[in-house]
Design brief:
alpha+beta; 7-stranded antiparallel sheet; 5-stranded antiparallel sheet; binds flavin-adenine dinucleotide
Length: 475
Amino acid sequence: MSFRDLTPFGPALAADLRSNLPSDCFRPAAPHYLEEPRGRYHGQAGVVLAPDRVEDVARIVQLCGRHKTGLVPYGGGTGLVGGQVMPEGPVPVILSLERMNKIRDVDPQDNVIVAEAGVILADLQAAAENVGRLFPLSLASEGSCRIGGNLSTNAGGVQVLRYGNARDLCLGLEAVLPDGTIWNGLSRLRKDNTGYDLRNLLVGAEGTLGIITAASLKLFPRPRHLETAFLAIRDPQAALELLTRCRDAFGEGVSVFELMHRQGMAFLSETMKQVRLPFGTGPEWMLLIELGLSGLGSNRAAFEAVLADAIEAGLVDDALVAQSDQQRQDFWTVRESIPLANRMIGAIYSHDISVPVSRIPEFIARAGQAVAALAPVRVNCFGHLGDGNLHYNVYPEPGRNKVEYQDLVQAITDTVYGLVHEMGGSVSAEHGIGRLKTGDLQKYGDPVRIRAMRALKQALDPVGIMNPGAVLVGD
Ligand SMILES: Cc1cc2nc3c(=O)[nH]c(=O)nc-3n(C[C@H](O)[C@H](O)[C@H](O)COP(=O)(O)OP(=O)(O)OC[C@H]3O[C@@H](n4cnc5c(N)ncnc54)[C@H](O)[C@@H]3O)c2cc1C
């Protein structure tokens, strides 16, 4: 069944919802429920519902199933691939998790936090900090994205290198399955080999296999010493060599290793003049490195020694080690402001790709040549080098608008994704498939895996009500 065969939201479902749900579940369809950060899609909503109990989520799913009407889960609305908005097809119900926002438990001994899906990521981090623990998932959108959305997109961010992505941080889930049943899988176990892993099916499913309503998540000791440095480096190959040196010296203590290009600094100086750029717009390649170390003493001297050796070896041209919390914050502000500056400039297309870490320099060199051969454009390439994940964003020449390049979009994405595919990489490293990349999944995804994904979708959601049109084309 195609998602286009679903029944649009209408008076019969509206009446059933009214008589089965508390009135405070109903929300006006405010514009933010229908928009997404990059303005590519404009969603539609028969009604916006914001329940505050899992039982009400289950009622909504049951009623949508009975009426064969689509249901789009909505967290913080910060997803970058259009998973949270349904621009076409039969009008759906929007289910916002914003009122399921309680921290149910924090246990510093088990190193576990149990949070409802609507808890904002920054609030979850703060709840962990209140008991002296770290919840390490960290993204520039952490002030508005919600943990249910983070898990549903298997979000990455800046500390994957050390702590893994959202999937790696998840011990258990509570979820409503497409038939409206509640699965209580809020396990705190670190070892549990009892068959198929439903948790890992729902994580990264982008709302197509059920609604996540709560999660039990791993906490970690807070590093006692943070060492943060902003570096001008020779080139991406030098960055890789420095990564190896840092890991040899500090092991898992290397928690952040972010690559930035001069183009990002130029965009910042054009759009956000208040952001202090440590090296101005001079060096071509820069790194933000952070070590989070737990020993009793500071490792500043050892860190500075590694950097001095790297300067000596010609890998690093200039190094600033943060001398205060304020300076550390200033370094982070540069990295975290890049996505906003990018948005203000307006990309022709943004690619969220990964390749094997060792092939990053080759990818950057080959992609640069191939894209330049298509048209004169600007590229801002930055990202989580330690994870092999780059944001490879292509922009118009100065004075021109992205709209003027629409005829080139396909050629640009074909070029970049073709190279990624050839190099054994992924066309969606951390943002997911949503609606934006359904075609790319079909084109570059493994056919056996896609067939298995379809079979799973069919088994769990035979009517196809869950986030229709997301992830799998035709469902
Ligand atoms: C400035 C900026 C920086 C970003 N940086 C990063 C980054 O570094 N790394 C990264 O991975 N992402 C990043 N993102 C993307 C985005 O923040 C993440 O994908 C985030 O995890 C989405 O969470 P959300 O609550 O906003 O989800 P939403 O956008 O509301 O939804 C995302 C998807 O999950 C589904 N969904 C939401 N909640 C649930 C639920 N409870 N149950 C089932 N399905 C659900 C939605 O239907 C949709 O398909 C960034 C975005 C912005 C705007």
